[in-house]
Amino acid sequence: MGYGVPSPQKKELISGFSEGTYLYRGRQWGPALSAFESILEKFPDDGPTKTFVERCKFFQQNPPSDDWDGVWVMETK
After folding, report:
1. Within 10 Å of residue 24's Cβ, how many Cβ atoms?
2. What does the alpha-carbon distance between residue 23 and residue 34 come to, in Å, rounded to a whole number?
């Protein structure tokens, strides 16, 4: 993101991503997915957001264990 004052667009991206990650960590996969997809409508090339969209979809089908701490563990490279 660089230094200095973020542009209004960057502030919007940061705010939306923060909301999405809050919902994600709260295991609210549907609302988190909606938040991340909303970001991609305005910022279609945002890599971290694309990653979280895929993770939300995965967890909707494969919920983590009750002791999940929010960490994503890669199984393959």
Report:
1. 21
2. 10
76: pLDDT strictly greater than 70? yes
Structure-block tokens of residue 37: 């997809």
Instruction: Report d(CA 55, CA 37) in Å as an integer.
Output: 12
Look-up: residue for tokens 């230094």? 3
Global pTM reads: 0.87
Residue 29's nearest CA partner among 43, 69, 37, 46 is 37
What is the rounded CA–CA span in Å between residue 16 and residue 75?
Answer: 28
Contact 39, 13 (CB under 8 A): yes
Q: What is the pLDDT of residues 6-23, one digit of tens each?
A: 899 999 999 999 999 999
